[in-house]
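It is worth pausing here to work through a concrete case rather than discussing structure prediction in the abstract. The textbook approach is simple: state the sequence, then state the predicted structure, then interpret. We follow exactly that order.
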Amino acid sequence: MRFYPLSFLTLLPQYAVAEVRPSSAAPSALFTSDYLVQVIGSFVLVIFLLVLVLLLVKRYTAVSAKTSGNIQVLSSVSLGQKERVVLLQVGVEQVLVGVTPSVIRRLHTLSEPVTITDDESKTFSDIWSDAISRQRGDKK
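Step two, the predicted structure:
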């Protein structure tokens, strides 16, 4: 059995160690102008970085429905974190393709073209009001 020379210090109570406090309580200078400039500057920097990241994510992850050229994206549905099914208009044909990070595969060529109306594309406010009405128990 080994003997540790300072092992008896673990037996001392915790309150035996006195905390050093200043004798006079000085008024707190928490809200100085330098401190406020630092806090507001940090807040503005964080908000700027959030907006920048959101713009970059929106720009590089969205499948855009560009109308130039012979290929148009008519509809897109996410099936998972990285998988999508996309309906393309190629000339007069409509092609359903599956898109993953490594492969784009034709799933089906539609014999009858699908017509997409404006009623199917809802805005965020429409989706939000539907979700709120479902939460309240209203049925549409």
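Step three, interpretation. The helical segments are 33-61, 124-136. DSSP finds two helices and four strands in the chain.
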